[in-house]
Amino acid sequence: MPVTAVVGLHWGDEGKGKVIDALSQHARLVVRFNGGANAGHTIVNEWGTFRLHLVPSGIFHPGCRNLIGPGCVVNPDLLLRELDDLARRGLARGQLLLSDRAHLTLPHHVQLDVLEEEARGAGAHGTTRQGIWPSYTDKVARVGLRVADLYHPEMLEAQLAASLRRHNAYLERVHGQPVLDPAAVRRACQAWAERLRPYVADGFEVVQQALEVDDPVLLEGHLGTMRDVDWGIYPYVTSSTTLAGGACSGAGIPPHRITRVVGVVKSYTTAVGSGPMPTEDAGPEGTRLRELGQEYGATTGRPRRCGWFDGVAARFASRLNGCTEIALMKLDVLDPFHPVRVCVAYEYRGQRLATIPPTPVLERVRPVYEELPGWRTSTHGVTRYADLPVQARRFVERVQELCGVPVTMIGTGPRRQDTVYTPGGVL
Predict the structure, then answer these.
(1) What is the overall mean pLDDT for the chain?
(2) Catalytic residue, candidates 10, 21, 41, 108
(3) What is the pLDDT of residues 25-34, one digit of tens each?
(4) Are residues 54 and 153 in the same domain?
């Protein structure tokens, strides 16, 4: 059976949660491979509306196990809160597993993230203030705390001492803040160890056992390609890799086992946070997209920046990730618009650019738009491609042409069933 990676092709918030929820119906294992509580997947199903930040989106399917992989950073308080919420709403938590190699986001990571973002002032990066970059900084600096360390007192003590020594010096000398009490952090770790114990697993063995028996495996990424630390709009990026290639290390999957890569885009483009977004529309059409699409951050509640579909970014990301197919979400949001615009190139100093340039150039490009006729009729809840208006089908076909791979899923509403499936693509 194939191993499928699901990745965002724009700035994040593309609708990956719905795609993963749909594909999880056929999966036996879902592995979250990057990020932490800095992004959320919104899922609408028979139990209600859920915004998951740490728990993988396959949690709603009883026959599917869900692993938070070693490439993630986990805030224990937020994870436990998320699990408690699922339990209160009648959902079992037994199918969740937490890799013993995943790193922890500690209270001082969150505190430092907030202080640094505030200190940047007008130059703020637009972080979610969830402690993500300090967690990954500690990981790379080799003073991070992993889940397994909670159960080994000597390692716990050594890593906590190293981490707090760095952070306390920074809090006191740079920000003039009181230092953290190591004993208080240690007590918190002991409490987390007890509550997390039922979920902790050897993630390597979980994944390898699934591969050995050819179980269908789904790899869940957070954020989008344009926020990737290597290939995104640096420095306005996250601190992990958001690409399908990152799923290999972040989940523990040999590269040759990933045979399907689903790239997710919306029918328009959105972003939360700072940095260049060439198709952003700060006028009435952008506002209308935001309101019709209910574009507010799942983690922060901040209004998302909205604009027309960026075909340049989508094609760049599709090629970079090696996408085999495209999932196009929220087609119905474009129902009232005429014309519908699609960015097919950028213009920079009289030159036409067909790919993503470095950030200093991207900040100065102008989008080159192609206008397509709108359909001005409802596509909400449509489930057959033939039932879409001709103009809507033309838009989908143009997205497929720009991305260079088949569009196999089309979202026509927030619910799982509001989906058009086109297994062979639309052309």
Answers:
(1) 91
(2) 41
(3) 889 999 999 9
(4) no
